[in-house]
Design brief:
The chain is α+β, with helices and mostly antiparallel strands and 261 residues long. It folds into 2 domains: 72 residues, Winged helix-like DNA-binding domain superfamily/Winged helix DNA-binding domain (Arc Repressor Mutant, subunit A), CATH 1.10.10; 177 residues, Beta-Lactamase, CATH 3.30.450.40. Helices cover 50% and strands 18% of the residues. The strands form 2 sheets. Strands 5-4-3-8-7-6 form a 6-stranded antiparallel beta sheet, sandwiched between helices. Helix 2 crosses helix 3, helix 4 crosses helix 8 and helix 5 packs across helix 7. It is elongated. It starts with a helix and ends with a helix.
């Protein structure tokens, strides 16, 4: 049960976040460095509070300081984030024709996703022409551990992220088929690295099975992943064996094109 003190801390944290975002926005549009007194007045806080906020933002690279004037200006972190966003937009633009080709060859719904934290984010899709197909939308999120796309991004992701997930004793169950433990997930990720693709056997959504492949850069890391989503009744073992070589070939073509990202 949350106490009044807990609720007060939450409100304070939200207020601090709002103020920090206001400072970033202020410096982004000011066109000149600003001192803490001026920043405090413009966002409606005391100078000491403004100093604490800009110091934290500076620690994380969102704000920098002119050593001579001691005034603050926007740091390089927003530029780094902007380049990541632009890279993802470029990835989407480059890969989309291959998604369309894959959808044409398989007549199934095809997705493209990237990782954000412990989730995947769908950034592009091409719908199947079948009447019965998977419902999804660009911008939606899903877990890493129980989706074909997520397993691909996790298997070829940062070591610390992999260790975080495989060390879990239990994993949240989305369906009766969801992977149950970190140990089981570790075995699954090893298969993904060995075979180059991942399967979702109705682990995220009942009635839907998926085949996912990672798009690997020259450093061996997954910058995105693509998948074919098929209603379970349509994905026989024979059909699965037909689809795997098709998506692997598309993966190789796209990875070659994007290997220097």
């Amino acid at each position: 049960m949350r106490t009044k003190r807990d609720k007060g801390k939450t409100l304070d944290n939200v207020q601090s976040l709002e103020r920090a975002l206001k400072i970033i926005d202020l410096l982004a549009h000011s066109g000149k460095p600003m001192g803490v007194t001026e920043i405090g007045k413009l966002i409606g806080v005391h100078k000491s509070t403004a100093y604490r906020l800009v110091s934290t933002l500076r620690q994380f690279g969102y704000v920098d300081q002119d050593e001579e004037t001691e005034k603050y200006f926007l740091g390089l972190k927003p530029l780094e984030l902007s380049s990541i966003i632009n890279e993802r937009l470029d990835i989407k633009e480059i890969i989309h024709p291959y998604l369309e080709d894959l959808a044409d060859k398989t007549n199934e719904t095809v997705h493209l996703a990237v990782r954000e934290g412990d989730e995947i984010v769908y950034i592009d899709k091409v719908e199947s022409k079948h009447t019965i197909r998977m419902y999804s939308r660009v911008g939606a999120r899903a877990p890493l551990y129980c989706t074909a796309l997520g397993k691909c991004l996790l298997a070829f992701g940062p070591e610390e992220l992999i260790n975080k997930w495989i060390s879990k004793d239990t994993l949240p169950q989305r369906t009766p088929n969801t992977i149950k433990s970190g140990k089981e997930l570790a075995e699954e990720l090893e298969k993904v690295r060995m075979y180059g693709y991942a399967l979702d056997r109705e682990e995220f959504e009942p009635g839907i099975r998926c085949i996912g492949v990672p798009i690997i850069n020259r450093k061996g890391k997954a910058i995105s992943a693509m998948s074919i989503s098929v209603p379970s009744f349509r994905l026989t073992e024979e059909r699965l064996q037909e689809l795997i070589p098709i998506i692997l070939k598309t993966r190789d073509t796209v990875s070659e094109k994007l290997k220097y990202l």
